[in-house]
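Operator note (shift B, R.M.): manual run for Arabinan endo-1,5-alpha-L-arabinosidase requested after the automated queue skipped it. Running by hand, logging everything below so the morning shift can see what happened. Input copied straight from the record, untouched. If output looks odd, do not overwrite the archive copy; leave it for review.
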Amino acid sequence: MKRIIFLILMGLLSIIMSACSSSSSKTTIIYPKEPPKDDLYDSSIINDESKWGTMNVHDPSIFKDGDWYYIFSTDVKVGGTPRAGIQVRKSKDLIHWQWVGYALDGVPKEAEDWTGATNLWAPDVTKIGDTYYLYYVASTFGTNQSFIGLATSKSIEGPWQDQGAVFKSQQGDEWNALDPNIVYAADGTMWMDFGSFFGGIYIVQLDPKTGKLMNNATPKLIARRSGADAIEGPYIIYNKQQKKYYLFTSFDSLFSDYNVRVSRSDNIDGPYVDFNGNLMTDTNVDSGTKILGSYKFDGNDGWIAPGHNSVLVDGNNYYIIHHARGEKDTNWPYLHVRKILWSDDGWPMVSPERYAGETEQQINKDEIIGKWEIIELDKNVNSEVTSTKIELLRNGKINTNDSKDHWEFSGKNTIKLYFYDPDHVQKGQYWVETAKIIPAWDWENWNPTLVFTGYDQTGTAIWGKMDKESK
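Run finished. Output pasted below as returned.
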């Protein structure tokens, strides 16, 4: 009798242990909640800024003030004449955005006299002591008759007092006084990077007492492209963990094939190099590591010409903030916020989906088995890139045309995809794509999912999204 009871108890224990083992094979993933749904191309609200939300956002610059995130952006208005003065929005979660108003009442006189501009572009905000500094741009489109000005306020929402010119340029100058970004070096010194098209991207030290150029300061070239190739919208951050400065710039046409590239340096004033060690001042190569471009996942229209970004460093979290144009009608620019992850060798990796409140967390290997959509952000293809489909099988194989293709997963939420291609790979016989996985919201199929972002061994950014059929 005792033996029978013992065997029964052992059997129950075995069942319990098996159940525990089975339940531990999957983790409880905390997915973001459903965000506000897109209502694109809504011409009925064109004349009511309070309803714009993320619509009519161009060249967004972000600044966190207390519990609020503020976006300052270029004066644009689809289907009408924009009011001049720098648009301002705010949010408490980077998801729901509300209209604040205009920072300035039109184009300041000195800027108007110099450029003839009818609206203002590409603002950036910083704070020194108890004073907010708003940098703005006036320019004659297609020329380097440009003006970077400064306004100050004791409140992030104004009123703002114009302080006149910070830097000006005109025909014949090697630089263009456009797209200012204020950045602080690790030693606390204050700098401004700026530039566009004419001559490239420059950096110059500022006097924190005035917010203007230091006495006798001369701009230094940090990035350039050959001929009339477009480079603009510079934005620099310092990553304390990597002890490096990262320069983000936008390449090509803001109307069609805009794309964001990144490079890094040990010093704030360069030299900046990309993933492959190319100097950003070398006009003989197509430098810059592309991390964002036009794309389309299955199930919805894509996004065209994403670019002119700022970057938010919020504690240990990084976000890229940029505009993008809807594929259906590219006249309409919208605000996008995306989470940035970091590769093990210190390169920023942009999420393929817009931010909806997701957090990095431990993912179990079993969770990623299934069908995925893959996008490769080839820097040689800056038109819209569409996704392809693969399936990650439980046996570690990738369900493709080659039986040698396989995948691996490590405990750091890192996935490696091995694609056999002995005729094209320079080192070894596989294309190896290394990426990190994070929960996200699938804006195309309107459900939570998993995504990954990373690079192959040549520095081509790769994106992945778990297919809705796998959920």
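Quick read of the result: The chain has two domains: 45-350, 365-470. The chain has a mean pLDDT of 93.
Leaving this for review. - R.M.
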